[in-house]
Write a structure and sequence with these properties.
Radius of gyration: 16 Å
CATH topology: Cytidine Deaminase, domain 2
Number of strands: 5
Number of domains: 1
CATH architecture: 3-Layer(aba) Sandwich
Order of helices and strands: HEEHHEHEEH
Shape: globular
Structural class: alpha/beta
Strand order of the largest sheet: 2-1-3-4-5
CATH superfamily: Cytidine Deaminase, domain 2
Distance between the termini: 53 Å
Number of helices: 5
Length: 159
């Protein structure tokens, strides 16, 4: 499989999040050409700050290979990682990150800064941004548009 095909799998995970009313962000981790972990955003369901898709799949991948070091893995995620997730990527030693949509408000893998390629850290990751960007971005745009419309309808019903 190639990067686009793996990102398509991450998009499928994002759609699972959306079905639960979660912000549709999905992620997978690939090791030696095979998906070893998949997951999606669960912050609203679990009400925990660290329930981002990236952190969920990093934990699952750690369990799969029985190591905190994910040195031979690639992380695919539908939205550019935030600072918290970028930190976890560095700490887990993931050497390659492929993301879909850029996040101009919180992205720390190219938009606001690039923590993963900062030479001051003891680890760097190769970053490929914009993979299936339109599909990833449209999923998020539609989700937030529908959420805003739903809130408008509910506020009118309350009047």
């Amino acid at each position: 499989m190639n990067d686009q095909q793996f990102m398509s799998l991450a998009l499928e995970e994002a759609k699972k999040a959306e079905a639960l009313g979660e912000v549709p962000i999905g992620a997978i981790i690939v090791y030696q050409g095979k998906v070893i972990a998949s997951g999606f955003n669960l912050r609203e369901s679990l009400q925990t700050t660290a329930s981002h898709a990236e952190l969920i799949v990093i934990d699952k991948a750690n369990e799969q290979i029985s190591s905190w070091r994910l040195e031979d893995c690639t992380l695919y995620v539908t939205l550019e990682p935030c600072p918290m997730c970028a930190g976890a990527i560095l700490q887990s030693r993931i050497p390659r990150v492929v993301f879909g949509a850029y996040d101009p408000k919180a992205g720390c893998v190219g938009s606001l800064m690039n923590l993963l390629e900062d030479s001051r850290f003891n680890h760097k990751s190769e970053v490929i941004g914009g993979m299936l960007e339109e599909e990833c971005g449209q999923l998020l745009t539609n989700f937030f548009r529908n959420l805003r419309e739903s809130k408008k309808i509910n506020s009118k019903k309350g009047n």
